[in-house]
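Why does this matter for the project? Reviewers at the last site visit asked to see concrete outputs rather than summary tables. In response, this paragraph embeds two records directly. Each consists of the residue sequence and, immediately after it, the corresponding structure tokens. Nothing has been edited or filtered.
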Amino acid sequence: MNELFMDFLTILLPTYFFFYMAITLINRNKKSMLNRIAALLMLAFLFYFLGEYIKTSLLPQYQMQIVLYGNSPMLLLVICFLVHLCILIGSPATSSLKRWLPFIYAAPFALWIVFLITEDHLVLYNAAVTDGRSPLDPLFLHLTVLFVAGYILLSVSILVFSWYRTQEAKQRKILRSLLFSLFTLFAWFVFVTAFLQLEFITSRNAMILYFIGYLLWAIALRHLVGKHDIMPDYRKLFHILFQSAPTAILLLDQKGVIREMNPRAKQWCEGIPIHDILSHFQFEDRLNIGDMLALFLQNKEKEAQWVARMYNPNKGDLDLIMGIDLIEEADEELFVMHLTDVTSLKDTERKLLESERSYKYLAHHDSLTDLYNRVAIQERVQQKIAGREMFALTLVDLDNFKLINDTYGHLIGDLYLQHIARIMKEHARTGDFIGRIGGDEFVLIISCIDESSDLNHVVNSRLSLLSKSPFLHEGIEIPVMFSAGVSLYPRDASDVTTLLKNADEAMYSVKRTGKNGISVFTTNY
């Protein structure tokens, strides 16, 4: 009974602990190779201890088969997993050692297979040996001990190399702790083996001491995992990231009901009832969030990105980039909505666009009268010429403008010019193009005419209101008088310069004959 109880305490009980270790490690992150190898190491320990208990207490008549086909490969897996684990923990310093892993796994198992094939099993394990000596064949035993001790020493060497190459303080502390635990395990293994060889203890007692050493080392490893978070719990990490994310994250069901919000989302939506939050989103196509989610499902996409705007009466408008991901959780499809604030970028973009529009406007408009300038007039004429569109170009020069400036001052002169521009714009017709190309010179381009048109009548219908609209300002009344010259494309010229020159000649013919009139260009000038 005492032996059975000791077997339970030293062999069977640790299996429960190793099973717990394996389950907790693999549950932390199934995708991590580090977690998987650590869990496999614990499972190898579990089956090794379980095999020893079955061999010793339950099925002693099958101890040879259990040792050769169960415990031996499990022990070899333990030391192989141990080396593999140390290489992974020591990364990136030990990444180059990964190419040796096939050899590390193959070497002990190849030797084990050779012994099973070439030696009699009853010789490899002599169950009749009960005097405290090991029932294993001496050569088989010594090679097994050599591999176990060698792989533990190799693991220690890998950790020493990683510790030497690593500069990060936390990683060095972790490696130092693992080094100490492995060195202690190695020293314990050498100590027990020496006592066994000197026959101070029996093989059974040595095995119990080995088990105790492995158990204490596993407890130390579990403590390191928990204390230093070598293999982090990614569910906890996800929750931490969810809570501390700089972007707003909302979890929605298919009906658009908000299930969860992170702190940043709550901050942006402060003051809005949770059931009313989604109605505050505006999209470019004037769709609501329900329409967007329905469209998203209809397209059978897994993720999408939209531009949205959220209005919060307490916080103001926010320009957002909205990302939508579709996930499955507990057989239910859920939407994860990521919101990134791009308000400052959008404001900058709007200012740049406004600045660009303002620049383009100023580049094509006269700053005083807000009419088109010489550049815009030339571009418009070039467009009409390129399109072979017939038009009349009218050059309007104000009469006696210098006298107005000299008599009333430049301020009144500017107001007078603005008055002229306003009258011309108010009475322009569809297709007309009005500009100012000089101090008192204006251009009127009239479209939709042909050579049979009475140009004098057409132009006069546009400009006659100028003469009927004198300038009035604080008791000052200045009549509007002008001289205008007209040239027709393509009859009179085929380029801008010549058209302006011909219109100028026609206009000066009016100046020479008494001013305040309209003249159409003829070749007689």
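We now turn to the second protein, recorded in exactly the same manner.
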Amino acid sequence: MDRWVPAALPAVGLDSSLVWSALLRHPWGLLSLLCLVQILCWTMVPTLIDPAPPGDVVEGFMWGREWVLLTYKHPQLPGWLLETSHLLTGSFRWPQYLVAQLTISATFILVYLLARDTLGRDKALAAVLLMPSIYFFGWPTPQFNHDYAQMPFWAAICWLLWRAGRGGGAGWWLALGLVSGIGLYAKFSTCLLLAFGGLWLLCDPRARSRLATPWPWLGLAVFLAVVAPLAIALYRIDFLPLTYFAGRDAWVSEHRARLYYIGVQVAGLSGFLLVLALSGLLRRSPAPQVPVERHTLVYLCWMGLGPAVLIMVVSLFTGTGEAWGAPMYNLVGVVALAFLGHRLGVAEMRRLAICAFICIVAMSGAYGAIRWTDCNVRGRMDAVCWPARPISDEAEAIWHAAAPGRLDIVGGDTNLAMLAGLNAYDKPSIFTDLDMRFAPWITRQRLRDHGMLMVWSGRHVPSRLLAWVDNIPVKTVLFNWSREAPPVAISFAVVPPGTRHLPAAASSRTRHPRS
């Protein structure tokens, strides 16, 4: 494992030698500081700037309160985490941002553990310091969704598989099976990493020899036991997530250029390449290179680059969401240090650390400035610009003024209805797209017994809602949301309990939204 000689530290300046000596001798201190700054900046800035959570977060909160295993889109581990954060704090304002940054910080730590085992302590620290320069670990993270919930699971699987394949005992295989199974509850695309891991396990001679022991099979049994409820639930909803995936794929193919996905990924890595250059790791070094063992290099490239490269190739032939690759760049820094680590010295490490903290502070600051400007100066109605709390308060007031009992169901324009129900004290359920396939927690009997509050944008009733609100009074309210743009009009209609003649509550179409 790489270690620096403390005597070399004074060369970089006496004013910082003691600090850097301590940090380099105790990398966990620097790693902890990195995680702390990441958590503070990316929790505080969105909390202070965004009046509403991002769209996927609102959806996660609304679905999380139903405590279902999966919806027509994805498994629901992110929703469970969001609902748990609300139950613990009572807030919809900031806990989701904290949860998101805890997953990012957990990813930093797990990547460090893998890199420490494969490259050594110092290169491992350098690899993690490169991660904040990657777009996917900064700007998109306030939108905590399935793509970001699976990040620590991808990192953990890579580390546990390496330990288990290198001769680890029963504990490593059991942990691998457990984490792999739970990872599928974050998103089904975890299967892609498991497929790459399985192929490596079969091809690497040392790892393959472990198959002659009972431990891998015990880990497999744990994995199957964990995913069995998910498989049963998937069958019971007629594999709707696969239908959603196909529809989402078709939407991307129709609305995005063929090279769009690859362009987004390259742009997301541009900061990483810039920091590599600024750190000096791209410069030639007279220091002799101690080559990384071939089997280690193969593993890091296969698990760290393989899924990302495959999805880029696939995107040339089919639609791929721009954020789907987010967890696939966990090990990019580790791979870079595997090839460039012989150039790493005290000066390079210091530059990497400075760049890492600048990236976190600058990117979070830019996020806050741009989001505030979009809402209040440009008048651009992004998802985070909606006045979430006033909409919920007004929705609840309208309901209780017109109907007895609690507000139990919200529907209509699904995105607005979710905002109306988010902060409501009654914690209503969302009737997604007024389709019971997408909201199985809604039944016709529940609709008759409890009624529903319909919500939509604008003064006129959309044609698809006419059957629901025909002859029902409509109240339109203007909400201020921007310093420059005019107020937005939102309409509400109370479908009272006891309504007998309800429209068909299941549509023949399948919605495939962008998010």
